[in-house]
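Fig. S4 source data, part A: sequence.
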Amino acid sequence: GVDIINTVIEIQDLTTDSISKIDIKHIYLDELILGEAADLSILTDLQIAQTEGHIELQSKLIIAPDFSSVQLNNLKLQSDFTGEDLPQGKISSTIKSNIYYHLPSKKAQLKKFMLQVDKLNLTGTLSLQSTDKTRIRFTLQGNHWDLTPYLPQDGAENDTTADKKETVAMQEPDLSFLH
């Protein structure tokens, strides 16, 4: 198995003079025996710019004996983020599902899918297959979504956004390829 505890990864971007930090409390994978379920657990904290987050993942990992498929059963991924740029300063989410990925067909299936972001809920099934043409199939149900807390308030557009819009509006498109 794998057992990583109390590890910090720090990424420094000298061009923007910023530091991102990943504080791994633990990453645990039970003994991996092909065809059998192994406990997978990840607990970490993140700090990126002015945003901080906490992420927890729990699942049962199964890899087929012939390596043709990977399953994440009873997956539960919870996250909590706080920061100035987030709606109302924080956002919380939970994803639950049973995920099956078949490598030869490049098809992923999410059964018993449940997504909750604050008070927004979505449940159902999804499948995605990436062949010549990507195929996405889903049957989803959601509650009544009030997106007002996620939209900027009137007059809340900051100067940076206004500057970017003005720059784009004044920039001529490059048409040199037409000559």
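Fig. S4 source data, part B ends here. Residues 87 and 152 are 8 Å apart (CA to CA).
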